[in-house]
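Make up an example, fold above all:
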Amino acid sequence: MNKVIISNFAASLFALLNPLGLVPIFISYTARENLVVKRWLALFVSLTALVLLMIFLFTGSSLLTFFGISIDSFRIAGGMILFVIGLGIINGNHKKSSQNMVSEEQNSDFREAQLVYSKIVIPLAMPLLVGPGSIANVILYASEAKADNNNTLFVGLMATIVVICFLIFVILLAGRWLQKLLGDVGLNILSRILGLLVASMGIQFVITGLSNTILNSIAPQILKIR
């Protein structure tokens, strides 16, 4: 059962982060930088995504408890967000920027990467990469793991996040190669397929949340009748 949940989490998180759709944006931001700087920037962006996702994995369910929000209510809200984001990806309405960064004085490639990163971390790492949909997704799965006291599942979610962030690093590094291989049309098609998956998962979240809410409200009444 854990394998099924983890595989679903991996598929949904990868689709929501949509690193393939981020490739053209990353290329436009780093067009004037040399190869070493681009490698550092790919590492910085992927590590930022890792840190953000881990924060929400560990603290997300506590935030729900603090604000008195049930997991089913959050599941419905998260599903609606996923559906809207999925439609936006399908329609090509996700934010892009053609801004090119102006290089500073190059004391070193690492220092240059730090300077560029400080300017592109918002919006590249968040919210374009780690946005409301991926945050909601992580909180939902973390809440379910904690509700079942399933430490093995929680560790699996952590490992999945690490693997996916490593894939983000690899994809950003291979950005120009992917663009040459697939072309702008190919990347666009892949991005829209991911958008369809996100929208479908959002609908499933809403259906599950509504079903649980209805059952939880009807079951006590049935027990009283009996």
Residues 2-225 form one domain. The chain has one domain: 2-225. The chain has a mean pLDDT of 80. The radius of gyration is 20 Å.
